[in-house]
């Protein structure tokens, strides 16, 4: 359940594709596919002749809490029955088929399904058994084949991986989340007074340590330091932390400890000579 936040609103992908598992063999694999579905708000699970029957207790722990999908799952005797109410169906397969049928990537498939959903049309994704995949008779019922671009020398992925790839692309095709953003936290921006106290504290200790030893450059050095922190959009908490750092450094060896250390090193060198 890592990453689950129960305070967030539940997302159910209205108009999302039905996930149709044909001849699924293991309950654990069905459960993992269910978990993948619900990660992206899909809840319409259809099982065609599952080998070990349904309900299957082994699917429950593997679903990791996606109970709504398990509870609403429907079982069909044939693929034709499972897709009877769907307008568009896409068959997932990595194997070449001896039939002429359009092949699309998961991303293209997601775009097509979004277009159909916008018109109120229902779509479905066909997934075959873990061992051999879909039969040609099942693929023949689909409008197109979905083929995932993979290493051609090792193109086999498991059932849950296939489901999560297609579910992810469907979700992303309708997501308004920006590709890059900075999460916002409940923090208080530092005020001008907070920054001024930081500057005063830092400059006081730097003066004590002998940092501003070149009088002609002192004004420029102070401005540079202030500009660094002004550009950083510091929060009040961050300013407090920085002041703690300055204090710790300044008191690490007593007031003016850097200057004292330099003097001791100078004296040690003189004694050695």
Structure description:
It is a single chain. By secondary structure, this protein is of the alpha/beta class. The protein has 2 domains: 18-173, SPOUT methyltransferase, trefoil knot domain (Alpha/beta knot), CATH 3.40.1280.10; 192-268. The chain has 11 helices and 7 strands. It has a 7-stranded parallel beta sheet with strand order 3-2-1-6-4-7-5. The longest helix is centred in the C-terminal third of the chain and has 17 residues, at 192-208. It is elongated, with a radius of gyration of 32 Å. The N and C termini lie far apart (68 Å). The model has no long low-confidence stretch (mean pLDDT 87).
Q: In whole angstroms, how far apart are the ends?
A: 68 Å
Low-confidence stretches: none
Quick one: CATH class of the largest domain?
Alpha Beta
Report the count of strand segments: 7
The chain-level structural class is alpha/beta
* Average of pLDDT: 87
The share of residues in helices is 40-55%
Q: Kindly identify the CATH topology of the largest domain.
A: Alpha/beta knot
Q: Indicate the overall shape.
A: elongated
Q: Output the helix-strand order.
A: EHEHHEHEEHEHEHHHHH
Can you summarize the main beta sheet? 7 strands, parallel
- Classify the beta-strand content into a percent band: 5-15%
Q: How are the strands of the largest sheet arranged?
A: 3-2-1-6-4-7-5
- Name given to the CATH architecture of the largest domain: 3-Layer(aba) Sandwich
Number of domains: 2
- Fourth CATH level, the homologous superfamily of the largest domain: SPOUT methyltransferase, trefoil knot domain
Radius of gyration, in Å, reads 32 Å
């Amino acid at each position: 359940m890592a990453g689950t936040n129960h305070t967030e609103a539940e997302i159910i992908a209205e108009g999302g594709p039905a996930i149709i598992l044909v001849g699924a063999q293991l309950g654990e694999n069905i459960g993992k596919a269910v978990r993948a579905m619900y990660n992206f708000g899909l809840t319409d699970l259809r099982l065609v002749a599952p080998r070990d029957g349904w309900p299957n207790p082994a699917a429950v722990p593997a679903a990791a809490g996606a109970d709504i999908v398990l509870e609403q799952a429907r079982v069909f005797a044939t693929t034709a029955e499972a897709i009877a109410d769907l307008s568009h169906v896409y068959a997932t397969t990595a194997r070449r088929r001896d039939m002429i049928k359009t092949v699309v990537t998961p991303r293209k498939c997601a775009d097509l399904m979004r277009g159909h959903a916008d018109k109120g049309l229902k779509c479905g994704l066909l997934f075959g058994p873990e061992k051999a995949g879909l039969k040609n008779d099942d693929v023949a019922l689909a409008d197109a084949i979905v083929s995932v671009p993979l290493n051609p020398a090792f193109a086999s992925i498991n059932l849950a991986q296939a489901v999560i790839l297609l579910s992810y692309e469907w979700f992303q095709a309708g997501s308004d989340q920006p590709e890059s953003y900075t999460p916002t936290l409940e923090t208080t921006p530092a005020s001008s007074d907070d920054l001024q106290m930081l500057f005063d504290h830092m400059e006081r200790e730097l003066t004590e340590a002998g940092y501003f030893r070149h009088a002609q450059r002192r004004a420029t050095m102070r401005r540079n330091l202030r500009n660094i922190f002004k550009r950083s959009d510091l929060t009040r908490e961050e300013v407090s932390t920085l002041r703690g750092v300055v204090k710790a450094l300044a008191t690490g060896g007593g007031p003016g400890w850097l200057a004292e250390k330099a003097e001791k090193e100078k004296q040690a060198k003189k004694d050695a000579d």
